[in-house]
Write a structure and sequence with these properties.
heterodimer; A: alpha+beta; DNA polymerase, domain 1; 5 helices; 14% strand; B: alpha+beta; Uridine Diphospho-n-acetylenolpyruvylglucosamine Reductase, domain 2; Uridine Diphospho-n-acetylenolpyruvylglucosamine Reductase, domain 3; Enolase-like, domain 1; 3 domains; 3-stranded parallel beta sheet; 25% strand; globular
Chain lengths: 159, 292
């Protein structure tokens, strides 16, 4: 079936089987390998992308469900410069192996858009659907706080 | 790598079109909303529908509103919307209690109320909460609408009375006065299924001393309809005191049939069922009196 999905502001048209998962569409059809394919059971959150401004776990969605809709992946975070979340992860050593990082960042950006000054508890609650296999949560929380304290000077948008 | 087997896909633009596709599918068509239960089951070949009818475009099924003396919740309401609804919280804090501990924020963004109820997982939380609240559900087909109580919806694990060609479209809640509610869950880790969870909805007399109506919902302890009829019958009309809450909780626990599994042994779960029933009743009573 032919679908057109807008990913990070660009329309991509592909012929796909309805059973193709969104994460495999993003990684294998579009070669956007920033999003990671982890547990396959919607537990780990490494595959988190935005579908029309809401983060979802793309291992548990079908690519056809995104037909005609907008997807934002970690590659779409960066504008003219790094998103504050990306900068924060760099400043505060928010990643070790990096596997959970795309999901952590997409969820953190969503959190900060809703709540620009989250407490440590609110950050931990927001990322409770993301598992860091290095258990580096302390630095991840610090990274999100860094981003909250250094908001982008220009609006970062999805497209 | 887990991938579903071959399936056809349609995304109807109207409820009428969705109902036609489901009817023509003759039981081999399944509605797809959040997909957080159906897609994993398809990956494991526990579900093999021939046609997925994606209802995510039917935004007319995503609402929470007061309708006369009832609350009406559309089946496509996301968990996150139920969690954040001030209207629902005002009348039924049990749902905020429950939603706070259902999965995680990202799953709650996409999973739906209707999908959770229709999945009929024996450890599912909303099934117990709606059973405690004595909700009714509206089931729609090309032939029209029918209404069943939430307590009649489930006929066993992963099985409901929603038939081929039918779609659960709405959940309705009564809005009684002097009523409080609460949900208590114990889980192994954040976002996990319940080891045991209990919801309680209490309507007290005007002086706050007597239980006029009571609903007790349980999940993950083998209650097929997710509620505790014997404990409810005992408590109705009794003084709303710790002593009677404890006796009702013991009765509720006696009638459970939990199984020992990786979440704990059966006797621990039965103990939890009693303790969480007391806590839920206590919290519901204090909310009914406007204390908390």
């Amino acid at each position: 079936m032919r679908i057109t999905v807008n990913v990070n502001g660009t329309d991509y048209t592909r012929d796909v089987e309805p059973r193709l998962l969104l994460i495999h569409f993003i990684r294998d059809e579009l070669s956007l390998t920033g999003s990671h394919w982890g547990c396959d059971t919607s537990n780990c959150g490494a595959c988190t992308v935005w579908l029309d401004s809401t983060p979802i776990k793309s291992c548990t969605a079908l690519a056809v469900m995104a037909d005609g809709r907008e997807v934002r992946t970690v590659e779409g975070l960066e504008g003219a410069e790094l998103d504050p979340v990306q900068q924060g992860f760099m400043e505060c050593h928010g990643l070790q192996c990096g596997f959970c990082t795309p999901g952590m960042m997409m969820t953190s950006r969503w959190l900060l858009d809703k709540n620009p000054d989250p407490s440590e508890h609110e950050i931990r609650e927001a990322i409770s659907g993301q598992i860091c296999r290095c258990t580096g949560y302390e630095n991840i929380v610090r990274s999100v706080r860094w981003a909250a304290e250094h908001p982008a000077t220009t609006e970062v948008t999805a497209s | 790598m887990q991938v579903p087997s071959h399936v056809e896909y349609e995304r109807p633009a109207t409820l009428a079109a969705a109902l036609m596709l489901l009817a023509n599918g003759e039981g081999e068509a399944r509605p797809l909303a959040g997909g957080h239960s159906l897609i994993p089951m398809m990956k494991l070949r526990l579900a093999r529908p021939e046609l997925l009818v994606d209802i995510n475009g039917l935004t007319e099924l995503a609402y929470i509103r007061q309708d006369g003396d009832q609350l009406a919740i559309g089946a496509l309401t996301r968990h996150a919307a139920l969690l954040e609804s001030a209207l629902v919280y005002e009348h039924y804090p049990i749902f905020r209690d429950a939603e706070t501990v259902i999965a995680d924020p990202i799953v709650r963004n996409w999973g739906t109320v209707g999908g959770s109820l229709c999945q009929a997982d024996p450890s599912e939380d909303l099934s117990a909460a709606f059973a405690a609240a004595k909700a009714t559900v509206v089931i729609t087909s090309q032939q029209g609408k029918r209404t069943v109580t939430a307590r009649e919806l489930h006929v066993g694990p992963y099985e409901t009375v929603v038939g081929a060609g039918e779609l659960l479209t709405e959940v309705r809640l009564p809005i009684p006065a002097r009523t409080g509610s609460a949900y208590e869950k114990v889980e192994r880790r954040v976002g996990d299924w319940s080891i045991v969870a209990v919801g309680a909805v209490l309507t007290l007399s005007a002086d706050g001393a007597t239980v006029e109506q009571v609903g007790i919902g349980l999940t993950a302890v083998g209650a097929e309809q997710f509620y505790a009829p014997e404990a409810e019958a005992y408590l109705r009309g009794k003084p709303a005191t710790e002593e009677h809450f404890a006796r009702a909780a013991a009765i509720a626990a006696e009638h459970t049939s939990p199984v020992s599994d990786q979440r704990g042994p059966a006797d621990y779960k039965r103990h939890l069922a009693a303790e969480l029933t007391v806590r839920a009743l206590r919290h519901a009573a204090s909310r009914a009196r406007g204390e908390a």
